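Quick question, first post here. What does this chain look like in 3D?
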Amino acid sequence: MVPGRVLALALLLGVAAPASAEELTLSVAISMKDAIEELGRGFTQARPGVVLRHNLGASGELSKQIEAGAPVDLFISAAARQMDELETKGLLVPGSRRVFARNVLVAVKPADSRLDLARPSDLLDPRVKRIVIGNPKTVPVGQYTEESLRALGLWDRVQGKLVFAENVRQALDYVARGEVDAAFVYATDAAVRPGRVKEAFRPAEDTYRPVTYPVAMVRESRHKALAQAFIDALLSASGQAVLRRFGFLPATA
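> Answer (accepted):
Ran it through. Tokens below.
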């Protein structure tokens, strides 16, 4: 990320807070958007004067922002890889990392699609012209998709059909608008577009790494006690209940 983009993020996250407020900035994988916003409302209601700032995006892009010095207190990733990279570089608070939820990969199609997509090999049907996935360079859902399609022997065979999205919600929007024939997203994302997308199939879970959501405190956080309180809220019974309502699975099977 160029320095100007880090500055822009810093300015965006620093506006319009009451002078007495304690702010906590969360960089959140966009697939967690709805659940974290819901959990955050309960968190701030119980703590008058606390303001949460949500910085949403693909986990790879969020981790790059943290590497570049963006003012972030907590990082919530949709994969271990991005968290591992930050941890290796010493950018996280030691011992603060926890896995708090899981998800699964699904293929979806437009709700009015007449294509019969019941299994991964159906993607080879010549009537399937465009398949959107997250960009594997920065988007965890794209990385999981690539792993699965490679394991199934399909990755090289569908290259001409692939369209790369910047994050999982963009992939979902493509299929919801009927601009592509199929998309790979998480089960929880498919559930937020009822009537516009429908699940086609689920790749076997042994064809890709488990989809886990780790959270950790960023080393440069100036609100470590509050950040730890948010981690505790994620792991609490009430926090886990919120995650279940949005379709997330518990951290351990």
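Residues 1-8, 10-18 have pLDDT under 50 and may be disordered.
The radius of gyration is 19 Å.
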